[in-house]
Amino acid sequence: MTDQTVGSGGLPGIKSAAHESGKRLAKRHAAERRFRWYGIAALAFGLGFLVILFGSIIGKGWTAFLQTSVHLNVYFDPEIVNPSGNPADRDELLRANYAKLADQALYKALGVNEEDRKERRAANALLSRGVDTQLKDIVLEDPSVIGEKREVWLLAADDVDALLKGSIRRDTPEERRALDDRQIGWIDTLVDDGKMEKRFNTGLFVYGASSYPETAGLGVALIGSLFMMMIVILVSVPLAVAAATYLEEFAAKNRISDMIEVNINNLAAVPSIVFGLLGLAIFINFLGLPRSAPIVGGLVLSLMTLPTIIIATRAALKAVPPSIREGALGVGASKHQVILHHVLPLALPGILTGTIIGLVQALGETAPLLMIGMVAFVADYPSSPMDPATALPVQIYMWATAAERGFIERTAGATMVLLAFLIVMNSLAVYLRHKFERKW
Amino acid sequence: MSNLTILAILAAAAVLAYLVGRYRSVQVANGNTTGFHSRPSYHGAYLAIWTVVPAALLLAAWTAADNPIFEYFTAKQLPESYQEKSEAQQSLTMNVVESIADGLPRLTPREEEVLRKARYGFVTDQTARDVLADHGVILGSAPDPKVVNAAVYLADLRSWARIILPIACFALAAACFAWGFRNISPRLRARTYVERSMTAALFTASTVAVLTTVGIVLSVLFETIHFFQHVSPMNFFFGTVWDPRFSAAGSEGSEGQFGLLPLLWGTMYISLVALLVAVPVGLFAAIYMSEYAGTKVRTVAKPLLEILAGIPTIVYGFFALVTFGPFLRDAGAAVGLDISASSVLTAGIVMGVMIIPFVSSLSDDIINAVPGSLREGSYGLGATQSETIKRVILPAALPGIVGAVLLAASRAIGETMIVVLAAGIAANLTLNPFEQVTTITVKIVSQLTGDLEFNSPQTLVAFALGLTLFVITLGLNVYALYIVRKYREQYE
After folding, report:
1. Which of A423, B43, B237, B325 is deepest in the core (most CB within 10 A)?
2. Which candidate from B291, B304, B462 shows the least CB-CB separation from A47?
């Protein structure tokens, strides 16, 4: 309309007003565009951060899946391993100085002058302290190797690994470098001979706690987390489904059911660390369950995931259309029969999805586990949920606060393992939801 | 026999009872159950419930009650001088008795003989101590004969209980089974009974949530009251110095100061920074997704953004520790600012990103719930889209958005792992966002990890902090849910 008035060349006052309003309109449109851009920028910020987060963790962590090893021809000298000559003497086999075997093999491979103590020590520093256990395991598994030579891959020391992965730089002056020039020379020879390389790091998934990065692994943490997830499933799912069924199908609208409902909603928002305090005060101090044990962790996590699964189950029950219930009631089923035979089976996919989401939450939870003493140095596999163990996120926390350089890489690697589990479980939930999604 | 074995046997008995009950009902009816009130399987379930539930309840009641009862009787065995001691000393003696009693079943018969002699004073007490030490019972000093006496008594009680309890449970199960079996008849309303028990079980399950809340409140409250016996509430709530000073066990006098204010300030400051990041970003993202974006962008962007809330907080903490903190420090150094690697800013920004989805998803729902008529009315008056959003939709959705922000704030206040790794441990009362502060949650963690001694204020303070945290977040949540709910009703 305004344009027309301008075009017909009316009074100058109107013209300037039209000019004004045109300017104002342009301003308003500019504001509109700006506003739109804010939205895009906000979205980009959130998603960009997600990309940076994943990028930084993968960038730091992928090398953790490779570990430098040395290929050595080890002579299992009976003099050292089994001086009594009786391979059945397990005590002796357990106490033998296996590191010496590895050291001797290394001297031979490098041509180290064994008279020179300094040179020997410099060579020893190339091997991890974990070789002791590696060789011991070989002997204990098969005592017939005593007196023979075997080709074995042994772990290299943390610093050697760091050099090959580039986190110890060769151009730093020798006196500030963890490895001196001679050691680097040895390493280069070994690499050139194909006797030293980065191999897939199975130790990361197998070993327990250790103060040396190269022999530290997630084994204990994975088993601890597995135990806890099992307890969560056993405790939380039946309780939550029962509670949700009661609230959705049976509860009369009265004070008690209102109170329970408000309670569940609030429980879902209680800080996780407070659940840890509950676990400490009730399960450990009052009921006397063992500290650091997956059973306590599992129970605490069960209580935490309870609201999540209850809320999901209620939504799933609500989504079952009334026609199903009415049809079943019409042919003479009792209320319990309707629910047990018809409503619950139809709500099962929804319940399953909710359960997985609850488990995802429980798997990544750290704070309450710190309260109940899961921050423990556990080197041996737990054989039952009552034994001390750690959990995946707690292991990440412990490594994140460790001082050695090698642990940063391990932490990021462990984080990748944790995220991989979560992504797989989440995808499973999404897949189930799509597969069983039903439009009534 | 352990409780688990008893439970397993009872479970097997339940299956058996179910089969028997079903078979019996068919037998009573001579194969024709049409005249029955309930189907045969309900008779089976009826019998199974009768068999298991009373016995299981007995088992549970016994497990809950046995220790206090045993201790009461054991205490009576101790001489009168024990009865007159202070409560702390009594519990100390009781602990010794318990650990000896725990060790007794592990002894060989000959060693047990030694201990029995110690009981009557034939052997020196030191010998008894050595024998026990061999089996993992480490005692601070050689036990008094009377204490050994009480321990033997306690161990005897326990071994008797181990025999009597299974017998009692199985006898009860058998009796109830017989009673139920006799009741099976065509007119038995088995289905009604079974369904009633099921409803009762479902109700019990739904009270677990309430019990958890009660458990949280009681456990935290008790320890807090304990704490306030050492430190006055005035010093805790209004103290400005946090210096708990871990003292060596037993050394008195080094009390330490437990001022809440620096921690509360740190918590609030970091949460404020987090909200300054999360509210604009979350709100604009929500507006964009609900008002501008097409369905395609929406279906991709919304779940992607929600991933941010699904990533475990330890991952954010690690990211803040090794990537974001050093980045901020270097960036600050480049422009001449002195930013500590773990600072208010580091923790706040990373936490802000974490809570973006809490703001955006809820705001998105709320904006979508604003009736279309309001929107169309505004367009009809010639307003642009952004003007409509700013002047019509946001004011209409404001209460709901405030609710969403409050929920996000409560998340931020209760968050632990990010601040543990990225905020620092120095309890500073500072306005400078580049410095370290510490939060309530950080201090709960640091007071409770490591060796615990449950009667020192240094550990008990964690519960007082936990209670404070619980009350703050509960208040925020209740208020936020109230606002959101009220807002929903307004437009429905």
Report:
1. B43
2. B304
